[in-house]
Amino acid sequence: MGKRAVWSGAIAPGWDIVANANGGYLLAIAARALGGALDRPDPVTVTGHYFYPGKAGDVTIETQVLKEGRRFGSGRADLLAQGRTLLSCIGTFGDLTEASGPEIVDQGPPEMPDPDDCLPVVATDTFPPPFMGKIELRLHPEAAGSGFATTSRPTRSRCSAPPTPSRPPPSTPISLWRGHPPSNSPCTSAPGPSRAGCAASSPRTS
User: Fold this and answer.
1) Confidence (pLDDT) at 183
2) Alpha-carbon distances of 168 from 10, 39, 172, 174, rounded to whole Å
3) In sequence order, what DSSP letters do the residues of 45-70 get, joined into one string?
4) What's the pLDDT band for 171 if we cut at 50, 70, 90?
5) Rounded Cα gap, residues 15 and 106, in angstroms
6) Contact partners, residue 190, CB within 8 Å, separation at least 6
7) In the prediction, which pLDDT does 122 show?
8) 3-state class of 114 per DSSP?
């Protein structure tokens, strides 16, 4: 069996949806520990299975290295709170700074409007949920609706998430995109600048 380790962490308050921590946030905690166990910072693929909701408080992450190669390492991580396994994930990590060889770019970045023309998502106690206040998320103007969004609208959504000084290293928060409003579910919207219309996610990174 591979090398095992136990890491400590915490689910911080304010990352919740109806009192349960956002699933992408939980996965990011486990992935950060797994990357540390493998000594490789960048997740190539991570698959998580959720068993119980997470609440604010201390957690432990049990990691196991399954394989260490020349360029990639693979392992497993279990996120536990009060002796209960909240989620398990298996992942492969590498180091993008060591990437070399041929590179093919067959398309450019998506067309996105200026962030000032997009609608900011403002956190509330209900919807948008509190954890939306932890990130800067702006919806494409064409994705914003008035009143209630209905299932007859196109199941397509576009948003922007500009980098912020408090954001962790670039590759880890990819899992947080589970926090974007689902493209196949209706959302309610409220009058004013926090109006959010649900309408594949295109993060703006520059």
Assistant:
1) 45
2) 15, 17, 7, 10
3) EEEEEE-S---SEEEEEEEEEEEE-S
4) low
5) 36
6) 124
7) 85
8) coil
Range list for CATH 3.10.129.10 in the chain: 4-96
Distance (Å, rounded) from C-alpha 177 to C-alpha 174?
Answer: 6
Any idea of the CA torsion for 193, 129, 198, 114, to the nearest 10 degrees?
A: 50
Q: What are the CB-based long-range contacts (under 8 Å, 24+) for 161-167?
A: 161/135, 161/136, 161/137, 161/203, 161/204, 162/115, 162/136, 162/138, 162/204, 162/205, 163/205, 164/135, 164/136, 167/135
Q: Which helix (H) or strand (E) holds 16?
A: strand 16-17
Helix (H/G/I), strand (E/B), else coil: 133: helix
Ranking 37-41, 59-63, 86-90, 97-101 by mean pLDDT, the lowest is 97-101
The whole-angstrom separation of Cα 132 and Cα 81 is 23
Global confidence as pTM: 0.70
Residue whose tokens read 């689910």: 11
Q: Domain 4-96 classified CATH 3.10.129.10?
A: yes
Alpha helices per DSSP H over the chain: 23-38
Taking the C-alpha atoms of residue 81 and residue 84, their distance in angstroms, rounded to an integer, is 5
Specify whether the CB–CB gap between 155 and 197 falls below 8 A: no
Close Cβ partners of 201 (under 8 Å, ≥ 6 residues apart): 157, 158, 159, 177, 180
User: Could you report the per-residue pLDDT of 136-165, keeping only the tens digit for each?
Assistant: 778 878 766 543 344 444 445 555 555 555
Region 45-63: mean pLDDT is 97
Q: Flag whether pLDDT at 28 surpasses 60.
A: yes
